[in-house]
Every structure is written in structure tokens, then in C-alpha cells.
Amino acid sequence: xxxxxxxxxxAACGAAGAWATPVSFSGSQRNLSATVSFENVGNxxxxxxxxxxxxxxxxxxxxxxxxxxxxxxxxSLTPVSAxxxxxxxxxxxxxxxxxxNVSGEWAFDGAILAYGAHMGISSSALDSLFGAKDRFDVxxxxxxxxxxxxxxxGITSPGDDRSTGTKGNGGVFNSPLTSGSVVFLFDVTxxxxxxxxxxxxxxxxxxxxxxxxxxxxxxxxGGSEVPEPATLAxxxxxxxxxxxxxRRRRG
Length: 251
Hints:
Layout lengths: L1 H12 L9 E7 L2 E10 L2 E8 L12 E7 L5 E9 L3 E3 L2 E4 L10 E3 L9 E4 L32 E2 L19 E4 L1 E9 L8 E7 L7 E3 L1 E2 L11 H22 L1
Parallel strand pairs: 10-11
Antiparallel strand pairs: 1-2, 1-15, 2-3, 3-12, 4-9, 4-13, 5-12, 6-7, 6-11, 8-9, 13-14
Helix pairs in contact: 1-2
């Protein structure tokens, strides 16, 4: 009886692979720093890409424009939406608040090769890796040409002083930028396993030769698996049954 109850409790704790927190990666290089989190939401994948530096952004290669990753074989992603996590700016002027739809300015391709990874999300063409057809919403265009271009709606740091920065064609000051983060949503085909995430690389600027660095796992991935409340209740019931069985034997 004791063994059966323990087995039930352990099985309940591992049931359905219920995840309580996203799997996140972070990295830094000099005054640049970034994070990306991946979360299984039903049959969808939620990805949050963030520029976490507190430094002022003055030149193009300090703007976070892409993240590359692998997600294991047999899984494909279909872009659904890209929503700004912070306000967007053109120069010193706020263009829109957090929660704005920037789906026409960001692109996804699941069949590329960059830094060993085959999936990428980008606001820039990055040496023609991404084009107009790769955008989250091919029918939307907030600024400039339809294709991902330049720095448009790339992610500036929360510490950016919007009164500074290079001006002129392609300059930081003249490009619309999103402050802080962008939230991406994908439909998933296949079995999503966040443990399979690998080859995370953060990219800045408008070309692959500009600053980039590897992301390292923050929260242990699969080691962070935590049962959902219903699962915990089932496990608790099993353990209570074990305690009751012990009391009966003592009686």
C-alpha cells in the first residue's frame, strides 16, 4: 500500500509536464545585455525578447534587433503576433504606448542558418536573411519599406536617453524604436519541448557582423518543472492517504 501511494504521488507531480515558469536565457557583452524567455501557453509558444541594458543607446549596433535559436526536430512555428512590451519612439517623441501591434515590423524564419541556429526572429533584414514575406503580419507596415529594414522597431534599452543618438539616414535618433521588449506569439506544430532549446544568440544592429553574443540558461530549463495546483492537489491526496494508512497500522 505504501509503495503504491508513493508511486501515485510521484506520478502526479510529473503529470503532463506542467511548467510553472518560462525557460529563459540571458547574455551580455560590455554595456549590452539581453534576455529571451520561452513559454508554452496551451498549443502556442510565447517568446519575450528584452533589451536589459541601462546604458544610453547612441549608435545602431547598440539596438537589439534579433534572436536566433533551435527548438529540436519535428517542431515548426507559425508567427501569430508581435506586441511591444514598452512604448515606441521616433526621436524624442512617443509614437505609441506599450501593447502596440508591431507585427508588420518583425519577421520570423524557421529555415535559416545563423550561428548554428535554424530559427530566428528579427526586425532587420540582417544580410537578406529576412524578407517581407517573413513578417508576422504581411499586411501591416508601420514605417518604411514593407521588408524588415534598418533599425525600425528594434529594441532600445530602458536606460536610453531619446534626446541623444546618431542622426541622419539610418541613425538611431531617426529610427522608430521600441523600448524594453517585444512579445511574440506562435502557433506550434509538433510536440513542444522547451528542454530542446539551444544555440541562443542575441544580435544587435543591421548586419550579422555587428555585436552578437550567446545566451545562457537562467533557470535550469527542465529542472524548473513545477506541478500546477491541480497536480499538487492530487499528489497531496496521495500523501494524505499514506499518512492515514500509517495511523491505521499503529492503531
